[in-house]
Each structure stands twice: as C-alpha cells, then as structure tokens.
Amino acid sequence: MKIYNSLTDKKEELIPLKNGKINMYVCGPTVYNYIHIGNARPVVFFDIVKRYLTYKGFEVTYASNITDVDDKIINRAIDEKVSEKEIVDKFATQYFKDCANLGSMKPDIIPYATNYIDQMIKYIKNLEDTGYAYYNDGNVYFRISKISDYGILSNQRKEDLIAGARIDIADKKESPLDFTLWKNTDVGIKWDSPWGKGRPGWHTECCVMIDDIFKGEIDIHGGGTDLKFPHHENEIAQANASGHNHLAKNWMHVGRLQIDNQKMSKSEGRTVWVKDLIENYPYQAFRLFILSSHYRQPINYTDEIMNQYNKEWEKISKAYKQAYVSLRMNKIENKDLSDDIKEFEQYMDDDFNTPNALMLISNIIKKINVKVRAKEDFSSDFNTLDTILNTLGIVPNKPVIDDIAIDTYNKWNEARINKDFDAADKYRNILVEKGII
Ligand SMILES: [Zn+2]
Q1: Distance 234 CA to ligand 1 centre (A)
Q2: Structural domain of residue 195, as residue ranges?
Q3: Is the pLDDT of residue 253 over 70?
Q4: Cβ atoms 176, 165 nearer than 8 A
C-alpha cells in the first residue's frame, strides 16, 4: 500500500522497518482545554490508520502522548487558582472520554511528558555535550546552524527562515531559529536540572518519548498539518542530532478543519467542542463527515453539512439493520466476502482514499436493497459492508436476536399472512421495543 510521505512529498510504498510491524506515533493534545472538532480530525483519522493497517495484517503499536507541561496549562492553573495537576487531570479525562465517544480506540501507549523529565534532561545534556545545544542564562537552546537540512519537512530554506524570523532584542539565542530545549522559570511547575530550575521545551518531549518507547526510528509519525512547522521540523532536527535519522520514515499530516469556511476561532465563537457535538449527533455521522474528504485536504464544517451526514448515517444504519435482522432471523451463517472488498482495499491502499470508500459503501447498500427485493442471497455483500464499516470505526448498533426474538418475528409474519391484525400489532410492538424493526 502507498502512503503520502510529507518528508519526501511523494506517495511511497509502506515498507515496515521491522518485518510486519508498524510503530506509529501521533502528537497528542496539550491538556489545558476541551478538544474541538479540529483536534478530533487527527484523532479519528489515525484511529482509522491503525484499524486499517491492523486489518492488512500489520502488527501496529500506536503511541500518542499527553502534553501535561506547558505555559498554557500553567497560565490556566494560575487563573483558576488550582494546581497544574488539577487542570491536567480534568482535561485529560475529558479528552479520553471525547475520543471514546468519537469511536476511537485508545492508543496502545499514552505517555505523559512529565513522566519523562529525567530522560529529557539526559537527552538535552547529550545535545549540549555534542555541540547541538548551548546554555545561556538558565536556558538551553538548540543550535539550528548545525543542521544542514533544516526546513526539509516544511519545504523551507534555512536562509529564508532566518530572514523571515522575528528578532527579539532581549533574545539570548545565537540565531532566531534556535528553539528552547530547557526553559529557566520561576513561574509554575519546575524541576531541578544541571541548568537550574526550569521545565523542558515542547519539541523535546516527543523525541524523548519516541526514543524511550520505540528505541530508534519509527515507521509513521503523524499529526495535524499545523504541527509541521516548527514542531515537527524541530523534532527532526533533534533526531538528526541524536543519530536517529529523520525520527520517522513516513510523516503523515492531516489537513485543517474550518467552520463556515473560516478558521476556527474561540474569540469569535466559531468553535465546536467535541463534547457538544456528540450530544447532538451520533459519532458515526461525524466519522462519515471526516472521511468524506481526503485526509490531506482541508475540510469545511457547517451545521448543514453535518445534518447531511447525519441523514446519510441514518440511511446506512437502517439498511444495515434490516439486512442484519433478515440474515439472523433466517439463521444464515456465511462468512464470505464479496469482490467489493478488493475495491475497498484498492482505495485505502492508495493513501487512504476514504471518499471513494464511502461511495463504495453506498453502492454496496444499493446492491443489498436490489437483492432483498429480488429475494437473492446478499449475505456476502452484508459481510463486506460490515467489515468495511468496522475497519473505518463506524460500528452500527446491532439488536440482540435470540431464539425468543426469532419466535416473535416468525409469529409476526404468520399473523400478517393470516391477516390477524391485532396479533400482528402485538408482535410488531415487541419487535420495535427490542429495536429489531
Ligand atoms: Zn510532537
């Protein structure tokens, strides 16, 4: 299968570094607020990457971190007169809840930055010892001049970046591009270090956690496109300095989500929180919306579009349920898949072409409906639909169909044939109550 690699700007064959295994890391949230639907896009997409690669037979280890030390967390804690830990606990808990409500599986490993302070200090010390970092007045900075291909990920030339960088007179850096590895501070949470009390910079934590968890270069590093520069560029620079090549073989970036064709803005009230979205729509409808655009393209959210995908989901789940009930009632047990599964793989193997996969779902439903009317066997079409939906993390609700339910269903049909409308109504009500029809 082919994946577009942001590092090389090419679609490349996915060849695991270790046979059959895929190590994947995605930058997680800084937990100082609720997550909005823009944050949810990579959460949903990389969940599908994990599901699909697993479906393809790869043994996937998926790590996604929690950034639990940051100025934003410290400032919120000061504002609310609580500890940083209280802020972190509250929003990390809500984040996990939101992810689960979006139908995303928990990553296999969820490292918290503050559990890696010792490793980060060691990592920074090593950069300092090898000349890639320098100390100035309590702070430690990364020395960009040592990295010849700086800008490789975001396709920017180092000279242009330097020319365009804002120069702060009070800056203690050698170059405006140099970034902070260790920040001297007397505000908020801090740790002892060889450079005095302070806290690590954000760009270091992902490198250190990847290093610790995966012991070297990984297969896929993902995140939102807004993380490409400077965050991921700086991760690559540090990996480069530490002898870990470009940190990851494949870099994947998920496009922006806009609301009403404009950038999301908290101050202008243009933000949709996941916790609110999930109260108004089934998560499956949101997933259909996310998958309706290719992951690298920007996507536009409006209430109207969301309602449209909600209707689409109602259509899919209704057709799915009818087909499922019919198969279970007739005790048809067939595990075969139809040829459409090949088409699904063909789309997904082409850098996750989910818009085409959604079209395929509609086509399969049409086929099932035609076969139902013609009283033909549609079990393999149903199995294919079921496999595709599950692989996309869009899991339909299935009613429980036990022997009692089957008996009631048969009696309902019998009563209808006999035109015994009172009995038919009675059985129908039972079936409706059980969510079967
Ligand atoms: Zn990161």
Answers
A1: 9
A2: 2-276
A3: yes
A4: yes
